[in-house]
């Protein structure tokens, strides 16, 4: 018998996603038809995308750190050098502060928002724009409670952050609107409160998200940490920050939604977990560990990310076909079973796509983990096909975002 906390794992995400894909393959889902014969074309397109971007095959992880390098600029390395940071623990805490707050600000910005970087004069949009903007805010000390130590994010500063401050940081105005601004502010405020409430995870001496770095390092065994262990700490420590959604048996389930086909004989019946932002965050917390000498194992214990680039890839290639003839005209919410089904199928199809890619390239999961398939990869391919099919490169479905899911 499973209990509710079992849903706060990547294993639960994967198992339930594949259960829905099996049903879809048999034509037993309400909202999507599944055509697996089209999956090899997806794999070929992703391989072409990967080889164009990384002809030497040296693909980095899919993480927030790629977005901080937008325009080919090593912003983090430059900031660390300028600040003279050499202590690995100081480095790790600052990296975790930056990654955590930036990922939480990373839900879709909408098609009309842009960010002009003061230092370069370059204009960035979507995820890259959000990353560069949040990096600039971090570097300015916006999230620090200590003016003498700007490169940090303190619980007190996060809890007190106002909409006007974040709007200014994102350059929001009548001609530059961003989707879900209030949701992002509330998320950072909630982050500050959650960090202060869990000194056992985020640090006894100073309440900051970066205190998680010390906790993760403390879980290392023989210099190794398993990726799902990092996710479980993220889910435990940050679980309270998500907007009011499903709470079962007193446990807040975060990015977990209902789907009628997931029938079990226990309290988890009808529940489909994703933990998309938490897993995106976890991917982004792995590299600072590696940079400071910790080996990360069981990378593929995490799942692919069920967001609109990866999910759009499968719709645009016809692997997934909505059964509702008006599906592309409606505006969908995250809790709609149609969207829950789409996201679950996306998770399972990413696994299948990764297997096909590895088989074609003669590689295994160690040499081409899912973190690299996503970056190389399915996310980039989803963006590429969207640009080929639609002006502006938006997703195939219209989504209503509160700034915490997509």
3D architecture notes:
This protein is 49% helix and 8% strand. With 406 residues, it is mainly α. The protein has one domain (4-400). The strands form 6 sheets. It has a two-stranded antiparallel ribbon. A two-stranded antiparallel sheet has the order 2-3. The protein has a two-stranded parallel sheet with strand order 4-9. A hairpin with a 6-residue loop joins strand 2 (115-116) and strand 3. The relative contact order is 0.18.
Mean pLDDT: 94
User: Total number of β-strand segments?
Assistant: 12
**Strands side by side in the biggest sheet:** 1-10
Structural class: mainly alpha
Strand share of the residues?
Answer: 5-15%
Total of DSSP H or I helical runs spanning 4+ residues: 16
Radius of gyration: 20 Å
Number of domains: 1
Outline the low-pLDDT stretches. Answer: none
N-to-C span: 32 Å
> Main beta sheet: strand number and arrangement?
2 strands, antiparallel
Q: Encode the helix/strand succession as letters.
A: HEHHHHEEHHHHHHEHEEEEHEHEEHHE
Helix content: 40-55%
Shape: globular
Descriptors:
single chain, 406 residues, mainly alpha, two-stranded antiparallel sheet, 16 helices, 49% helix, 8% strand
